[in-house]
Design goal:
With 442 residues, the chain is mostly helical. The protein is built from 19 helices and 5 strands. The strands form 2 sheets. A 3-stranded antiparallel beta sheet has the order 4-1-5. A two-stranded antiparallel sheet has the order 2-3. β2 (247-249) and β3 (252-254) form a beta hairpin.
Length: 442
């Protein structure tokens, strides 16, 4: 406790860090306040039916990521997820489209162009999503909930929902520039955490009513173990030694030192889970356009989030997408070329083709346990629900929400520790340091 207080004092002494943390909290507060502002023309007192409809299934997951804004018909109802979808599309286009490949190699100017294109694509995604969201509102709510009808309500609401999501994106970018941590990831995380107190309270009430407070405590112990295992997954690395040749320039000697290439056990982050969940929505879509009893049976089996076929299929998809996403984000050929240009080599491995084969083999081997563990994390909420937990509380046992929480917290703490160490203060941990980690692939 004494060290914790001392660390807080050290953080307060650093004016820049104090300003960044305050700015981050201020922008996050604006986001949370906006989540409770309902669309104009809707009676907030009649939104209870919408909250009940979005408490389970996929809509419940979307509502959790938006921090409850989805179920409250808020101006931030669509949240930041359309931007995530646009980022994934642009990232995949960077593999297949030569124009985006050139932009990726242009450095800072190319990055700015890609960001601008991503914003335009986000708007194009938001417009149909806003229309679909309003259609769902009309289906779920009674006519008396709407003060305006038809085009007079839909047109302004589409504009407001689109502008609201773009404003959330702007808040995230300002947090990244002026605050601490990755703003987009922090906004997603704060939306997930906002649902945690309500989920814990519901679980406590249900267990208390059934006389199972011991079971409630056991659930928290298991949750703690799952968090520890997820941290190990996020932080796990395989260090590949690289030796650099000595070079003498004038009176100075360069190189001759051994460094390491940290290869992540889970280099794909949460992207395989996002891809798998998107693919799992295909059966539901097929049922919507086809009128076949056989298809309905298959779709029903693949839509039951606690069923065997849903979880088995999702597990296989996560494993496959982990290999796929790792392959497109980590290029052993480029790594081998960069080492060769800088006079580096892996001890015992010939430069060139042999180095590429060695790096590819190592990545394949460490990705296998990482992908299996990621698949298990994905289906853990289903096991938690089958054990009798409420769906809202079970979501914190795995899946995208768990990995986002762990990843964002570690990333933010690592940035705070960097500020402390840069000014010759002690880090956040008593011994050792928080490992740096790459972005979350958002």
């Amino acid at each position: 406790m004494k060290r914790f207080i001392e660390t807080l004092k050290n953080i307060y002494k650093i004016e820049d860090l104090r300003f960044r943390i305050g700015t981050t909290l201020f922008f996050l507060l604006i986001y949370r306040l906006g989540s409770f502002v309902s669309l104009p023309g809707i009676d907030p007192a009649q939104l209870q039916n919408l909250e009940q409809q979005t408490s389970d299934g996929l809509l419940g997951l979307i509502n959790m990521f938006s921090g409850g804004a989805f179920a409250q018909a808020s101006v931030f109802a669509l949240g930041i997820m359309p931007y995530i979808s646009a980022s994934i599309v642009i990232q995949l286009m960077g593999i297949a489209v030569p124009y985006f490949q050139r932009l990726q190699k242009e450095g800072e100017s190319g990055r700015r162009k890609i960001n601008q294109i991503t914003r335009y694509l986000t708007v194009l995604i938001l417009i149909p999503q806003a229309s679909a969201y309003l259609t769902n509102l009309h289906y779920q709510l009674p006519e008396t909930a709407f003060a305006m009808k038809g085009l007079w309500f839909n047109a302004p609401s589409i504009v407001i929902l689109t502008a609201g999501s773009m404003f959330v994106l702007w808040l995230g970018e300002r947090i990244t520039d002026k605050g601490i941590g990755n703003g987009i990831s922090l906004i997603i995380m704060i939306g997930i955490i906002a649902r945690l107190p309500q989920s814990v309270a519901q679980e406590f009430v249900s267990r208390f009513a059934a006389g199972g407070l011991v079971v409630f405590l056991v659930e928290f112990v298991i949750l703690f173990i799952v968090f520890m295992a997820s941290i190990a997954l996020v932080q796990g690395t395989r260090r590949i030694p690289v030796q650099y040749a000595k070079r003498i320039v004038g009176n100075k000697q360069y190189g001759g030192v051994r460094q390491y290439i940290p290869l992540k056990v889970n280099a794909a982050g949460v992207m395989p889970i996002i891809f798998a969940q998107a693919i799992m929505m295909v059966p539901i879509t097929i049922v919507g356009v086809a009128n076949s009893e056989n298809l309905r049976g298959v779709a029903a089996a693949l839509s039951n989030i606690t069923g065997f076929w849903y979880n088995f299929t999702q597990f296989l998809l996560v494993v496959a997408f982990t290999y796929f996403y790792t392959a497109i984000t980590i290029n052993p050929t480029q790594m081998a070329e960069d080492m060769k240009k800088n006079g580096g080599f892996i001890p015992g491995v010939k430069p060139g083709k042999k180095t590429v084969e060695f790096l590819d083999t190592v990545m394949s081997r460490i990705t296998l346990p990482g992908s299996i563990f990621l698949g298990l994390v994905t289906i853990l909420p289903a096991f938690a629900m089958m054990a009798g937990m409420s769906q809202g509380f079970a979501y914190f046992y795995g899946g995208t929400s768990l990995l986002i929480l762990v990843g964002v917290v570690l990333d933010t703490l690592q940035q705070i520790e960097s500020h402390l160490l840069m000014r010759h203060y002690d880090g956040l941990m008593k011994s050792g340091r928080i490992k740096g980690r790459p972005g979350m692939g958002m």
